[in-house]
Amino acid sequence: MKKRTLLLLLACSTITVYAQKGKKPQIKIKPRTEFVADLMSKMTLEEKIAQMVQFTADGTITGPKSGTNWVDEIKKGNVGSILNATGVDYTRKIQKMNLDNSRLKIPILFGYDVIHGYKTIFPITLGETASWDLELARKSAEIAAAESAAAGIHWTFAPMVDISRDPRWGRVSEGAGEDTYLGSKMAFARVKGFQGNNLNDLYTVLACTKHFAAYGAAEAGRDYNTVDMSERLLREVYLPPYKATVDAGVGSFMASFNEIAGVPSTGNKWLMNDLLKKEWGFNGFVVTDYTGMNEMIPHGYAKNEQHAGELALKAGIDMDMVGAIYLNDTKKNLQEGKVTMAQIDDACRRVLLAKYDLGLFEDPYRYNEEKREKATIYKKEYLDAALNAANKSMVLLKNSNNVLPLKQSQKVAFVGPLVSDEFNIIGSWAAAGDRNGYAVSVEEGVKHLVKDQSKVSFNKGVEIKDSKRTMMQAALDAAKNADVVVAVMGEFENQSGEAASQVNIDLPGIQKEFLAELKKLGKPVVLVLLNGRPLTLSWENDNMDAILEAWFPGTMGGDAIAQTLYGVNNPSGKLPMTFPRSVGQVPIYYNHKNTGRPYLGTNDPEQKYKSRYTDSENSPLYAFGYGLSYTKFEYSNLKLSSNKLSGSNKITVTVDVKNTGNYDGEEVVQLYVHDVVGSVTRPVKELKGFTKQLIKKGETKTVTFDISADDLRFYNIDMKFVAEPGDFEVFVGGSSDATLKATFELVK
Ligand code: GLC
């Protein structure tokens, strides 16, 4: 914490130096296509291939060790891009080494995984999505871009937009959850945040949509595993968020590691060329994921590296991340007629155009200004934005007898392995975020807020994973003397993110055992969760008095958790992903099909021959879109402007939402539609609209949505993207469990 203050003073003292946004570079060069055409006319084959080559510097490790000496390759003029180098100093050194060895002075493109912040770390993306606040998501991406661009980064490998319905997959933490509509809106907002209106702006970065495609549908939630699905499911559920980023003008895509129906994405011509570049009109460039090209050999899709390079280039892959295949085999493939010069030119051109758009040909060092870096990192307004994002991402899952919010007059025992944590709280993929002594822990956040510190105590009690019990008694003793116990528990940050799939998604270690001991004391117990995925919390839900899902809330997480616990922030988050009762229910998601034998619950006259389990309810523990508030919202008066929809008309949906509790609060009002009969079966409901509304206590707001025929389109039996006439049901409420219903008919 102390270090932060010093940094803040430094930032403020030099803030005026670079106050104006995106200073225009002085040098004027030819328009982009002309400039790149001229440049390419002078380039040798080797120089063109170099633009298709990316190696990793020795910063963050984000994949298997590379066998190539990246420094030597730069000195040979063989490298177009470097990832995992950060800071204006280090990137300048590398850029200089490159330009000193580049006959035509072609700058290197620096890429880095700035997923949810560069230095100022925001909630993990799954957590930020729980805010259902698109402007907030755009803003945090804008800030991440500003900090990373000021640190010499040109290109972020984000947003990750992979839909997933499987919490065993650790990478759910990086995405926007299970829903196509919410995921698409968030994807669009994040690209706009990273890229702004002009890539030439000194505070924006090139974004990269990943992982294309359907990486989140890995069988059994096991990372890198097989994906196999109908084209209809692919197009209806998994592809729209990627398409939304093309509509937002994203400048690059990253191919996913997985295969889809037997074809690895890195060699999938239909996916990269026919769909992305032709059908969607994407004119940026596509990079593989880390050695994704080489992995087509173990996939059993490429005979050897040269064959992999041929398949990738033919598929429409423009840059090889770390694989060294384009470097080593493209010339041979050309000479043997396996690839064409036109394919090489197209790949090279796409990369050069991105470098042009970033202004790198005008000044390769334009992002390398120490003063700007110091003035931009950890600006107070950024930290304030991170606190706001963390507050808005909090999801209140349970609050019996209004045990929350806490009062400062209460004696509160804060316990749990993450109660003083400053390392895990910023989550996985936390870029250059500081993990030691910088982020605000829960203990620090409580101490910032609570005036009489004799009222609060802090004891870990147990570790996250190991079964050491030596600290438990001290924590239990502290709890005995308290009015309320707050247990801050969850996962290690590296239990989610890449290569972090789990078959068990319970609270790890002996945390649950410790909770049971705490419960025996007969005091209210509040569970605060720091985790990167939905967990199975049935026992906790039955035995805890309150549960607050805080995700990994980032640099300001401790302040946000304290402000939420003590009512300074009224939690308004809603789950972007279903929380199952047990991992045996997975995959479980709200927009499921009805089946021919839907189980209607305990009132169902047929209890056996129904689509159900004999040892569990079908329903999840917490539904998609669910989240409580310290106040209460009542929905009534659902009306449709008409019960018939035709042609280009719209139906206006209105609903009254009343705040019947004692606090002002924000509510995410959600609109779901059910297409009752189709030429193919349709989900029981689909999110088609949402709006986050501040409703003061006692106030009633009338919320409206419009529905048009376009909103009802799907891939019919002939794979045509159409709306089919027939009956539709509309549900509006504060979660996907909404029951308030109206109906209309779509007529020809
Ligand atoms: C990793 C990840 C990808 C990341 C890339 C570069 O393997 O799959 O998301 O952007 O490598 O770090």
Mind explaining what this structure looks like?
Among the domains are: 391-585, Glycoside hydrolase family 3 C-terminal domain (Rossmann fold), CATH 3.40.50.1700; 633-747, Immunoglobulin-like, CATH 2.60.40. It has 21 helices and 26 strands. Helix 7 (134-150) runs antiparallel to helix 16 (380-393) and helix 17 (442-449) crosses helix 21 (557-565). The longest helix has 17 residues, at 134-150. It is globular and about 75 Å long. The N and C termini lie far apart (64 Å). Residues 5-21 have low confidence and may be disordered.
Keywords, please?
single chain, 748 residues, alpha/beta, Rossmann fold, Immunoglobulin-like, six-stranded mixed beta sheet, five-stranded parallel beta sheet, globular, binds alpha-D-glucopyranose
Brief digest:
With 748 residues, the chain is an alpha/beta fold.
CATH class of the domain at 391-585: Alpha Beta
Small-molecule binders here are: alpha-D-glucopyranose
Low-confidence stretches: 5-21
**What is the helix content?**
25-40%
Structural class: alpha/beta
CATH superfamily (homologous) name of the domain at 391-585: Glycoside hydrolase family 3 C-terminal domain
Mean of pLDDT = 95
According to DSSP, the number of beta strands is 26
In the CATH hierarchy, the third-tier topology of the domain at 391-585 is known as Rossmann fold
